[in-house]
Amino acid sequence: MSISVLPRTQASSTNSRHFAPRSLLPLETESCWKIETGVVRALSWLEDGTVVTLGLWGAGEIVGKTLAQIDPYQLECLTKVEATRLQTDNWLQTQSALLAHIQQAGELTLIRSHRRVDMMLLKLLNWLGKKFGRQVEQGQLIDLRLTHQDIADMLGSTRVTITRTLNQLEQQGLIRRLSLQRIVLQEEEVWHYEI
Q1: DSSP code, position 4
Q2: Residue 76 and residue 21: Cα distance in Å, rounded?
Q3: Which of 21, 25, 98, 141 has the greatest number of C-beta atoms within 10 Å?
Q4: Cα 189 to the chain's mean position, in Å?
Q5: DSSP code string of 162-183
Q6: How far apart are CA 171 and CA 178, in angstroms?
Q7: How far apart are CA 73 and CA 152, in angstroms?
Q8: Banded model confidence at residue 186, pLDDT cuts 50, 70, 90
Q9: Cα separation of 15 and 111, whole Å?
Q10: Angle between helices 117-132 and 91-112 in degrees, nearest 10
Q11: Which helix (H) or strand (E) holds 44?
C-alpha cells in the first residue's frame, strides 16, 4: 500500500503556522491542515479515558476533523510541526488525503491484529521506520521520541507491557534504544524473528 504525499506548495508560507511538541492543532469545520514538517498524531479516547491512536501523519499529508468524523478527536503534535491551513473546497487534495487516511487505518488495523504484543510492537516499529525513519549504519532510526505510553496507546496495550517488551527486544538484539526515546530497528534481525 502506498500513501500519497503532497508536495510543498509555494503559497503555503502565507498560511503556515508553527506548533510546539505536544501542542494541539486547532480543529475547524471548513479547513484541514497540510503538514509541512514534523509528525502529528490523530487520537480519540473511550468513555473510560483510554486513549486510541487513529494515525500518525508526516510531511505532505493532510489532517483535520473534516477527514475523520469521530468525536472526541484531537490532533497532537509529536514533534515541532509546521502546518498550512487548507480550505476543504480544494477537493483534489482532500480526496488524496482521504485515501491516505483509509490506507493508514488499514495498516494500523493489520498491525494491531497480531496476537502477541512483541509481534505487534515489531510490526509497529517497522511501519514507523518506513514512514518516518531514516537509514543509519546500525539500522533504521526512528527519531520520533514516542513515550512508552504513546506506543501503548497505538497498540491498545499498557505502558508496563510495552516497557517490558522493549526491554526484551533490546536484549534479543532486535532494537537499540538511544537517548531521548529514539529507537534503532535492526531490520535484518527482525526478518529472522518473524520466521
Answers
A1: -
A2: 8
A3: 25
A4: 23
A5: HHHHHHHHHHTTSEEE-GGG-E
A6: 14
A7: 18
A8: confident
A9: 35
A10: 150
A11: strand 40-45
